[in-house]
Amino acid sequence: MFIKVFEKFVRLFKPVELYPEALIAYFHRLPSQISVSWFRDDGFIVGTIKTDDGAEFMTQGVSAREFVEMVNEAVFVVYEIPEDYFDALGAKKFVPTREEFEKLNNAAIKKSTLQLDKLPMAA
Questions:
Q1: Contact (Cβ atoms closer than 8 angstroms) between residue 93 and residue 119
Q2: Least CB-packed of 42, 73, 76, 89 within 10 Å?
Q3: In the 8-state DSSP scheme, what is residue 1?
Q4: What pLDDT was estimated at residue 89?
Q5: DSSP strand pairing (44-51 vs 56-61)
Q6: Rounded CA separation 76/67 (Å)
Q7: Element (H or E) spanning 71, and its range?
Q8: CA triplet 81, 112, 32: central angle to 5 degrees?
Q9: What distance in Å separates the CA atoms of residue 72 and residue 10, rounded to the nearest whole number?
Q10: Per-residue b or e along 80-95, where b marks 16 or more CB atoms closer than 10 Å to that residue's CB
């Protein structure tokens, strides 16, 4: 934990150089579409992520916003995208529709599935 905080602190003063070729390669490494089946469990939203290329893994979050962030972070980690490129790639390449996000925010809805497409790469 301390090491991660220290690394982030160091990055404030010594920005990491990002390479355009690597950025494009990492973007194309990500799946085009994911499906997230989720349910609520003791204050957490727990989800199973399935990608269009057959990978399957899980993540969780306390709030809808945190859950979406964790889904994206999990995808980036599974596809071995270096953390330095998270922000450059948008770190939210998979974004639910307004309706899907409202379901995540509605505690009365106990489970559902999201179909998320990768957003296009910004110019």
A1: yes
A2: 42
A3: -
A4: 83
A5: antiparallel
A6: 14
A7: helix 64-78
A8: 30
A9: 24
A10: ebeeebbebbbeebbb
> Angle formed by the axes of helices 64-78 and 98-105, to 10°?
110
* Burial call 50-79: b when 16+ CB within 10 Å, e when fewer: bbeeeeeeebebeebeebbebbbbbbbebe
How confident is the model over 37-95, as pLDDT tens digits? 999 999 999 999 999 999 999 999 999 999 999 999 999 999 999 988 888 887 568 88
Contacts of 116 (CB under 8 A, 6+ apart): 33, 34, 35, 36, 71, 94, 95, 96
Q: Are 101 and 68 in contact (CB under 8 A)?
A: yes
Confidence at residue 87, expressed as pLDDT on a 0 to 100 scale: 82
The pTM is what?
A: 0.82
**Rounded to an integer, what distance in angstroms lies between the CA atom of residue 3 and that of residue 12?**
15
Please report, in angstroms and rounded to a whole number, the separation of the first and last CA atoms in the chain.
34
